[in-house]
Design a protein that fits this description.
There is one protein chain. The chain is an all-alpha fold. It has a single domain (18-300), classed as Transmembrane di-heme cytochromes, Chain C (Fumarate Reductase Cytochrome B subunit), CATH 1.20.950. The protein has twelve helices and three strands. The chain has helices spanning 32-56, 63-69, 73-104, 108-113, 122-137, 149-173, 175-178, 185-215, 225-228, 233-239, 241-247, 270-300, and strands spanning 26-28, 230-232, 264-265. A three-stranded antiparallel beta sheet has the order 2-1-3. It is globular, with a radius of gyration of 21 Å. The termini are far apart. Residues 1-14 have low confidence and may be disordered.
Length: 301
């Protein structure tokens, strides 16, 4: 691959953001749609967790104070349901967008199994094994495409959570409607499923996902690519080398000021850099707070 390190000036600030480390050019990793959906997912998830914890652990020492911050039990429940409704809407809208992309794809098998695919396959299992070997030996690092197995797990984990948490939540939200077909014990089961699956989801996001994007040694202290949408060529070659192999021919083109997937991008501005870092650290801080509250509640309830 040709040396492009001098193609662009360095960004105005040199942050601790992994996606800005190393040589350029910058490459568009995410479109505006990707980032908007992520922002919706992040904000609604936090609201659901912070309204759900005092509802789930009403006996915890902090629950009354946290509930008061939301304006009381009724208002916290209303905010919880509104956030859940927003999550259901954007999740189905995004799944519909993916389905539409599949329908218009010329090579549907490549869309399902190629470097661009979100769908888990046997290669992800091989990459999982190779990743652990690489952790201990430093050799033969897996070559991810657009999405690695952890990113696919993040996505389909939310889909699975939407089915379990969303389904049980709907039963609890509209008990009069569902009582026409369901026996009484089903509502107890829905309550158990809703609470425990929500705790699993929170634990996964605030431990596994946060470790992968913030606390992993080669990522620390954060990777803000989802906030400003671009990363350096060196970053992309480390994180998604199979993708770089596929898009190499586009990297000699003109810089696209608009988010155009896999095309050269301008470096993030100083404002974008600071904003990405601030949002990343705020997200990390709230996540750590939530995990702390959950552990506190488990110990005292």
């Amino acid at each position: 691959m040709a040396d492009r390190s001098g193609a662009f000036d360095a960004p105005a600030l040199t942050p601790l953001d992994t996606s800005q480390r190393g040589d350029g050019p910058f490459i568009w990793r995410f479109t505006l749609l990707h980032r908007l959906v992520h922002a919706l997912a992040m904000s609604t998830f936090y609201i659901l967790v912070l309204t759900g914890i005092p509802l789930r652990f009403s006996c915890a020492p902090f629950s009354a104070a946290l509930m008061n911050l939301w304006g009381g039990v009724e208002r916290a429940g209303l905010i919880h349901r509104i956030s859940a409704g927003v999550m259901v809407v954007y999740s189905f809208a995004f799944l519909g967008w993916l389905a539409a992309r599949f329908v218009v794809a010329k090579d549907k098998l490549a869309w399902l199994r190629g470097y661009d695919s979100m769908v888990p396959d046997l290669q992800d299992a091989r990459d999982f094994i190779k990743q652990w070997k690489w952790y201990f030996t430093g050799r033969d690092r897996p070559r991810f495409g657009r999405y690695g197995y952890l990113e696919k797990l993040d996505f389909f984990g939310e889909v699975w959570g939407l089915v379990i948490i969303g389904g049980s939540g709907m039963v609890l939200w509209f008990p009069e409607f569902f009582s026409r077909w369901l026996p009484g014990w089903a509502f107890n089961v829905a309550t158990v499923f809703h609470g425990y699956e929500a705790l699993i989801a929170a634990g996964f996001i605030f431990i596994v996902h946060f470790f992968n994007v913030h606390l992993r040694p080669d990522k620390f202290p954060l990777d803000a690519v989802m906030f400003h949408g671009r990363g350096t060529l060196e970053y992309m070659e480390e994180e998604h080398p199979a993708l770089v192999d596929e898009i190499e021919g586009r990297l000699d083109g003109p810089v696209s000021r608009q988010p155009k997937l896999d095309h050269p991008a301008p470096p993030p501005t100083a404002v974008q850099t600071v904003l990405g870092a601030v949002l990343g650290f705020i997200a990390l801080g709230i996540g750590v707070l939530c995990i702390g509250l959950i552990f506190w509640a488990v110990l005292f309830c």
